[in-house]
Structure formats: C-alpha cells, structure tokens
Amino acid sequence: MVSGRTSKRAARGMAKVFLLAAIAGSLPVGCSPGQVHANGSLVAAPAGSLSVYQLAERLGMQVVDVTIMMATLRDSHDTVVIYAEPGSLAYVNGRVLAAPRGGVMAVDDILFVPQDYEPAIRSALRMPSTPPPPPPLPSMPPPGREPPPTRQAVGRLGTVVIDAGHGGQDPGTISVYGVREKTIVLDVAQTVAERLIQSGVDVRLTRDGDEFIPLEGRAEIANRCRAALFVSIHADSAPRNRAASGFTVYTNRTPSRGSIAAADAVIGDLSSAGGDSRGRHEANYRVLVGASCPAILVEIGFLSNAREAANLGNQGYRDRLAAAIAAGVLDYLARR
Questions:
Q1: Count of beta carbons in the 10 Å neighbourhood of residue 151
Q2: Residue 74's domain spans which residues?
Q3: Which tens digit of pLDDT belongs to each residue from 67-85?
Q4: Which of 110, 198, 252, 278 would give a disulfide with 248, using CB separation of 3.0 to 4.6 Å?
C-alpha cells in the first residue's frame, strides 16, 4: 500500500517522462468491454450471485478470512461463516441457517453466494442491518460563496483508494500513437489523488510507480483500510471500431446503492467537464467484485480512437479528466 500523503511530484515527473518515451512493445491486453481479457480482469460469476465481498458490503460487515472453501464475515456484533460446495451452508453467530443451502462456489478464486443468502443472513443478525435511505441533498450556497472544502469536513468521511490499472510487465492497451495505457492512467490517478488530498481526503494509491500489482491485491488494499470508495482508472480500446469514443463508468453486475451513487456522481462531473459519456455499465471486473466497499471502474477514453488517443497524450486534457473524477468522488462523499 502506498500512502497518498507522500509527495507525488517525483512520481508524476517520472510518469511524464515515461509517457513521452513510451512505444508499442507488445500486443494490447487492455480494457475493451464485453470480452474476457488475457489478464483475467473479468470474472464469470454465476448468474444471480454475489461475491462474499459484495455480500459483506451490503451487510455492513468486513471479510476477515477467505479461501476458496469458506469465508468469515464480521462486525462488532455478529460473525457469519459461509462454506462452499459440497454441502454449502452459512452459520450466523454459530447457528446454522436452515435455508438457503447450496450454490456457494468459487469462481476464479473468488467465493460467490446466491443472492437469497443476503436477506436470510440479514434477518439472523443480532443487529439486523437495513440499507440506509439516500440522504437528502445538502443545500448549496449562492454562486461565488462556496466554502472551500476542509480536512475536517471531508476527511472524516473515510479513505478513498485510487487504482491505476495495469503497470510493470502489464502495459495495458497500446494507443494508436504507441503510448501505453499503464502510463496514462498512472498520471491521471496521481492527479486525482493530489486533488483529493488537497480537499482533505485520506487517499491510498494501489501503485505510485511503474509496478505490477496483482488484480486480487488491488481490491484487498481497499478492504484492509476499510475504504469508503475504490476507484480503478483505465483506458479503453476497440480495435475493430476505431470510431468508438467516450468515457464509461462500470459497477459490478449486482451493484450496491453506494456503487451506483459513486458512478453517477463521477459521470455527472466528467460530463460537465466536456466528456462524451457512454454512461454506466455493469461488468464483473475482478477489482470490483473483490471490493467490500462501493467500487467503480472508470474507462477515461479509447486509445484506439486517434482523436482521443491524442487528447489522452496531452497533459492538460488528462488534468481536466482527473479534476472531474476527483470532483465526482467529493460529490459522492458529501452525499453518502
């Protein structure tokens, strides 16, 4: 884990050098929607299921232990233990649930449960949790009188983990100009982190340089620090449709209300900054189903599109995108 409170100046300088010097060195393995990538970023989750991390988020609990055979979820009042097939079942505070049973299985090393486990477990908790109603929107001050965000006002809302996709031996997709996704998204992620820190948010970066972080390790960083939000930043590619353009924000296929709210906030601010929105989409990216907090994945544009690739190679354009993503995160934190 890399603390976002350390200076980013040196790392940003390195990122800019890499960006100018980057050349195509391998075939794209990037983030085209609707396909299983070579890096295993999409998980073929069973229909109508939740990962144990998603289940924990919905129940307001934390995953404290997990293997492909069992998972333990815990909060200050309750402990839930779930066992996989064969004979899959769940225990709540040491008592077995009579129903449902079965259907718990590991897919790509992630444990999934049928969705009907959630209400059954919820009703058996000592302190039954219910999804909170959406808070009312805060009243906005007149134009020109907006108070600056303070560390006390925003920082108390929790930690945000910013994930720059790919890195190290995994370059991501390669732009039509030979620039690598891993370099572009690192620069954007660092700028997002800087802006959030300036607004008093506690930030963690999954990587702060050109290093490879396994997919399962990225969400685990958010889980360990009990993040309020996980944001993964990528760039898209559609080699068979080079006219494809715009940004996309993904949630998992069974998103929580927090994930949807965060996605909508980021979409709104990116659109206000002049971005061409492709809207919110759903996909079981490994980093999303592995996070036990609201989680989104932002595809900032298509490196297979000549115009967008040129824009993403421009520092000013990347800074504008980063400012919009940071603004969306702040909007979400203020309203959650």
A1: 13
A2: 49-124
A3: 999 999 999 999 999 999 8
A4: 278
